[in-house]
Structure formats: structure tokens, C-alpha cells
Protein: Ferric uptake regulation protein
Organism: Marinospirillum celere
Amino acid sequence: MSQQAEHLMAEADELCLRKGLRLTPTRRRVLELIVDSPGGAKAYDLLDALTAENPSARPPTIYRAIDFLLSNGLIHRIESLNAYVSCTCPEHAQAYQLLICKTCGRVQELHEEDLDSQLETAAKRQGFKVHRKTIEVHGICHTCQQ
């Protein structure tokens, strides 16, 4: 596991401890698999990996773990890819944007709070109550442009 992955797992442990949440072995393993997939991981890929380690794993096992990780800000869903990526900053779990490289597949998380605020303000002006925001920007990352 990379140093960044170890850091993300340590943050997840600390967040769960602080909030009194249980990061069960299955939830932890699903999070580790997602952390190790910088371009995002699909639920059935997670299931395949988990089943290889634990033959009794079934789709509900994965989806319950994903729901827990999503609801506690430890991962994000990439809507356009139907995949999941680790959250690099759980404190900003609700105000984030994703940059997705169409060449290498890497996903970078941004926290442009001004953009988030402008979107909220524009929605309010229209009398619209926002329940969830997903901002995904597809393009080519700096490394792949070289």
C-alpha cells in the first residue's frame, strides 16, 4: 500500500473513531480496494476481489459497505462511470468536484468552495433545494498531456 493510501486509511480510522462508527473488517477491506484503485472501482470488481478472499461474499455485502463508506464521506461515487473513488478529504465530503482523466483514468478531487457556493446560490435563486451535487469534469490530466 502506498504512503498516500496508508494516510487515507489512517484518516478513515480516525474519523470512525471520532464519530463512534464501526469500520468492520469488510468495510475496511472494501475501502482499501477503492483506495488502491485511483481511477475508481466498480461494485462488481470489488465483489470479485472480495470473493477471491472470502468466497461467501455476496453483492449485498459490497453494497452495504459502499453505502456506509458513502454516507460517512469516505468515498465518492463517480456517476458517469458508475464507480467509486476514495475521498481525499472527508471534512469536505459534501463540497467537492472530480477531475477525471480520459487517458489514464485517474481521478483528482478538488474543493473549490466558491464554485460550490455559487451553485448553491444559483439554485436558491431558482427556488430549488439541492439534495446532492455531483460535479465531474472529464479531460486529460497534466501527466498525460506531456
User: Anything to note?
Assistant: Strands lie at 75-78, 83-86, 97-101, 107-110, 136-139. The domain at 3-90 is CATH 1.10.10.10 (Arc Repressor Mutant, subunit A). The longest strand covers residues 97-101. Residues 99 and 108 are 5 Å apart (CA to CA).
